[in-house]
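User: My collaborator sent over this chain with a note saying "see what the structure looks like." That's all I know about it. Can you take a look?
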Amino acid sequence: MSQTAKPAFLLNSRGVSRDLDAYVVAARFSRDGRLAGFALGDGTVWLAPLAASTDWTQVTAHDGAVLDFAADPTGDGFISGGDDGKLVRVAADATVSAIADFGTKWVEHVATHPIDNTKGLIAASAGKLVRLFDHTGRALKELTHPSTVTGLVFDARGKRIGASHYNGASLWFVAAKTDTPRKLEWKGSHTSILIHPEGDAVVTAMQENALHGWKLPDGAHMRMSGYPAKTASLSFTRNGKWMASSGADAMVIWPFFGGGPMGKAPLELAGGDGIICAQVAANPRDEIVAGGFTDGLVVVADINSSRVLPVVPPQHGPISTLAWSPDGTRLAVGSETGFAALIDFAKH
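Assistant: Without extra context I'll predict from the sequence alone. Here is the result:
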C-alpha cells in the first residue's frame, strides 16, 4: 500500500473556529465585508468581526429558530426571518429591531438586494405570500403565489424577484405598477430558485433529485438530472459561465456557455469517495467554488485546473452552510452540529 501524506487543511493555518452549540442555519457576510454572521437553529445570531477574530458576540434574534438570513442591503448588519413569524434587522452593534410580523406563519425565506449605497430592497416569504420592503423596512407590496414559496431570489440588478413553488416559479418586476408575474411552469415540487447573473435563465432544484431550468426570454426548458440525492445548494460563478450544485458525491459544475447546459456534460470536482456534497458556494471574484460534504469536509476547487485545496477536515458534522465574503477572500463555514469557522484566503 502506498503511503500518502495527510492533507494540510487551511483551517489550521488560516482559520478561526467556534462551537456554537446549535445547528448553523446560514452564514453570511455584511455588505461592507467587515462582519460575518452565523444564524442558528436556537434563534440566536453570532456576530464575528473580521478585524478581531476572537471577539464574537451572541444575539437573540428570534423566539424560536432562525429559518433564513441575509445581509442588510445597505448597512453593516443582517436581516433575519424566524419561525416566530418575525422579520428583524440585526445590526453590527448587536441591536435587534423589528421590520415585520407575519403572525403565526413562519418567515421561511429572506432575500435582499443593494440598489446603491443608500438604498436597497428586502423580501420575505411566509406561506404563499411574499412581502417586499425598502431598506428602511417600509412595506412596498405583497405578492401572492399559487402555493407555498420554497425559494426567493433577486436578479443581479434588483429589477426582478423570483419565487419557486409547486409546479414551477414566478418572476415579478419589483417596480411594476400592476403586479402580474411571469409564470415558469413545470409540474412537480420545486424547492429552491436561482437566477443567472445575466438574467437570461432561471434554475430550480426539485424534490425528485433533479434540476429544472428555463431559458429567458423564450422560456425553453432545461433539464439536469442524474443526482443521487436532493440538491440543496446552487451557486453561479461571477459571470454566470458555470453553475455549481450539490446532491452528488462531488461538486457538479454545469456549463452555461456554448449552448450549455443542455447537451453538455458537467464537471465533477472533489468527489469519488461516495460522500454526498451538501453545500456549494462559488467565489464572487474568481472561478473557484467551495464545497461542503456530509462528513464535514470542506474543500475549494479551481474550476479551470480542477485543483482541490482541503480547507476543513471531516470531523465537525454535515456542512449546512457556506458563504464567501464580498471580496472573495474569506470563507464562512457552518455545520449541523454547531461548528462555525472563518478561513482567510487573502495573500499574506
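A starting point for your reply to your collaborator: The chain has one helix and 30 strands.
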